[in-house]
Design goal:
Elements lengths: L2 H20 L6 E4 L6 H9 L4 H10 L5 H12 L1 H11 L3 H23 L4 H7 L5 H9 L8 H13 L3 H16 L2 E4 L10 H11 L3 E4 L2 H11 L2 H13 L3 H7 L5 H10 L17 H28 L20 E4 L2 E4 L18 H16 L1 H12 L1 E2 L1 E4 L2 E4 L14 E3 L2 E3 L1 H17 L7 H11 L13 H6 L3 H4 L6 H4 L3 H10 L8 E3 L10 E2 L4 E3 L13 E9 L2 E8 L4 H7 L4 E9 L10 H16 L2
Parallel strand pairs: 1-2, 2-3, 3-6, 8-11, 11-13
Antiparallel strand pairs: 1-14, 4-5, 7-8, 9-10, 12-13, 14-15, 15-16
Helix pairs in contact: 1-26, 3-4, 4-5, 6-9, 6-10, 12-13, 12-19, 12-20, 13-16, 15-16, 19-20
Bound molecules: 1,6-di-O-phosphono-beta-D-fructofuranose and manganese (II) ion.
């Protein structure tokens, strides 16, 4: 064959393959948010395919397995390692154990074949374990019903069991099912803060997941901002870690030596009830609680001082109402705001100089410099934050939907509120684009000096026009010191109320150049009273809210699934622990609600990926001689 013909045939083969992919059903997207370092809860959602795995098992085994046996199989798929250990304790007879393994291998193979049926080969290949690839590929892709081959496959399964590879094999297939149950995960912000293992979530995504994206949340910004050199982001972050008994995360995972702040804090402060940690884990010692308490005070006071300096440096941020330290009276036991004076029962203003309340002391300065140098040089923090940066954005337009963590700031009429900074005005989409630009610029050029980028990144955390925060003020000071609920209340931007209006959803979509048939999906605010589905089903809030805040203790938040049949919102069962989930064989989903039902089954053709494929096909067609 001459070379020209050969290369033409290569191109044609590629076109045939790509055209075939266009007609496969659209992959399943899962939308989750506000994980807040709860790695077990996150893995529970992911391993269950946000409820998709149990649905698939039901579709395959309805009428063949009882509900109880379906639940057992589902639980095995979520937690194969733990469930297999239990089974080995329960089934001690060798023959019975072999039988169980053979039956189970057959069942999980049926499920993996079913979930992989809508994927092109290269995606399935990625989901299969590389060590066992040669065997799994034969059993997954082989035609098991072909009469001449049945014996061949059965013998293979028998040999896997006889060679005692059964557990390893089952585990690898279960993991493949988990991966294939969701094609892409959208993590709509707040991976970090409060919970103990945000790094485990990053690790899971980087090591075992292929398709995902982050839409950054306000808490993630604190961590990215600290790497960029923002001392304010860092002090907020340390304060929150101390508040949630999480300082170990900084030491053990990010290699931050906290000696300087712990020494300073325990010397300058005594534990006080208003700084007690917000969690009470079994095994927390009094010593640890005292350290948390004092570090929280030290970080809070340094934060309030540096915030004061930043607010004065940046009048354009319009945050003068947050200047509170200078309103504390000389007795340091009361504060006068406007006309009113409020008592401060538990103040800790011993390092505040009334003549110059926002000035930090020399000791504080030493601590801050030591810490910010460590943050900006932490290898692990660098790795994790760049991972979030590389795979994330302020907002994402994907398959016709608009995703962001918090809000697009508006006034009561729904007009986009402008932020006047850097000689320009930014509002709506341009505010999001500008925020992303500054964040990236800040991370590319880290500096520990008081620069504009660092100040702006901190503004994204708690400024009233920040798309990530979405509240009029952050009342940290009031919540620590002033026992007055009216002052402590943070008011949501009108955006959240307007989200009940369909016209508003349409306006947002238009601002982002999207068709009004798509959906807006965000997180951030826990839904206590209203439904998470709003604006005639055009807006969905997927907060994986913590059970502590939930109006119903059985509800553990919401996740959204978007597959070839449409979109459905899953109400998640409250998650208490991995062990409890395994013992109770509880499924993740409590309830489902259809958000959209596609009239026709969506295929890859109807997705952004499909658009790319079409372009590739066009380019290839042009190459044909
Ligand atoms: O309950 P805590 O730890 O004091 O945190 C409360 C603070 O967290 C915030 O709710 C922001 O966090 P979220 O993004 O999780 O809502 C602030 O508005 C509030 O001041
Ligand atoms: Mn948030």
């Amino acid at each position: 064959m001459d070379n020209e013909l050969k290369s033409n045939n290569d191109i044609k083969t590629k076109i045939v393959k790509l055209s075939a992919i266009l007609n496969l059903p659209k992959g399943t997207e899962a939308f989750i948010s506000d994980i807040h370092g709860n790695d077990d809860k996150y893995l529970n959602i992911i391993r269950s395919g946000a409820g998709n795995v149990s649905r698939k098992v039901e579709e395959v085994f309805n009428g063949r397995l009882t509900k109880l046996n379906q639940r057992k199989l589902v639980c095995l798929i979520y937690y194969p390692e733990e469930v297999l250990a239990q089974i080995h304790e329960q089934i001690t007879d060798p023959d019975e154990a072999k039988q169980w393994s053979m039956d189970t291998i057959n069942s999980v193979l049926e499920v993996v074949r079913y979930v992989s049926s809508k994927y092109p080969r290269h995606i399935i290949d990625k989901a299969l374990d590389t060590d066992l690839y040669e065997i799994t590929k034969k059993l997954v892709f082989g035609d098991l019903m072909a009469p001449d081959k049945q014996q061949y496959y059965r013998e293979m399964i028998k040999t896997v069991v006889n060679l005692k590879m059964n557990d390893e094999f089952i585990i690898s297939i279960c993991h493949a099912i988990q991966k294939l149950a969701i094609e892409r995960i959208h993590i709509i912000g707040d991976v970090y803060d409060r919970g103990r293992h945000p790094e485990a979530i990053i690790k899971h995504l980087s090591e075992s997941w292929q398709n995902f994206d982050f839409e950054w949340g306000n808490h993630d910004i604190l961590w990215m901002g600290s790497l960029a050199g923002s001392k304010l982001c860092m002090l907020n972050l340390i304060r929150i870690c101390a508040r949630y008994h999480n300082l170990k995360l900084l030491e053990n995972v990010y290699g931050i030596d906290l000696t300087s702040i712990i020494k300073f804090a325990t010397h300058a402060y005594v534990p006080m009830s208003n700084f007690e940690p917000r969690v009470n884990f079994a095994g927390m010692t009094d010593d640890e609680k005292n350290v948390d308490n004092c570090v929280q005070q030290a970080a809070a006071i340094m934060q309030f001082k540096l915030e004061g300096q930043a607010i004065k440096r940046r009048p354009e941020f319009d945050m003068n109402d947050r200047l509170l330290l200078d309103k504390v009276n000389l007795d340091k036991k009361s504060i006068t705001i406007g006309e009113k004076t409020y008592q401060i029962k538990h103040g800790c203003f011993q390092t505040v100089n009334p003549a110059s309340p926002y000035q930090i002391t020399h000791s504080e300065q030493t601590v801050i410099i030591d810490l910010i140098n460590q943050f900006t040089h932490s290898t692990q923090l660098n790795e994790h934050m760049w991972f979030m940066l590389d795979h994330g954005s302020m907002y994402l337009k994907h398959n016709g939907n608009l995703l962001f963590h918090g809000c697009i700031p508006v006034d009561k009429q729904g007009n986009f509120l402008p932020l006047h900074v850097d000689g320009q005005s930014y509002a709506g989409r341009s505010l999001c684009d500008y925020s992303e630009y500054i964040l990236k610029d800040g991370l590319r050029h880290p500096t520990t000096g008081d620069c504009y980028n660092s100040d702006f990144i901190w503004y994204l955390w708690e400024g009233k026009n920040s798309p990530l925060f979405g509240k009029d003020k952050m009342t940290t000071f009031e919540r620590y010191f002033i026992d007055e609920s009216e002052l402590q209340t943070e008011h949501l931007n009108p955006f959240f109320e307007l989200c009940n209006e369909e016209w508003f959803a349409d306006k947002l979509m238009k601002e982002f150049n999207l068709n009004s048939r798509g959906h807006i999906i965000n997180g951030h605010t826990p839904e206590f009273t209203d439904s998470p589905v709003k604006a005639n089903k055009k807006i969905v809030v997927v907060n994986g809210l913590s059970e502590i805040n939930s109006r119903d203790r059985n509800i553990g938040g919401y996740a959204l699934l978007f597959d070839s049949y449409g979109m459905r919102l899953e109400t998640l069962r409250a998650f208490r622990s991995r062990q409890e989930s395994i013992e109770e064989m509880s499924d993740v989903v409590l309830d489902k609600q259809i958000v959209e039902h596609s009239a026709e089954r969506r295929t890859v053709k109807d997705t952004d990926y499909g658009q790319n494929i079409k372009k590739q096909i066009e380019r290839l067609a042009e190459e044909l001689k």
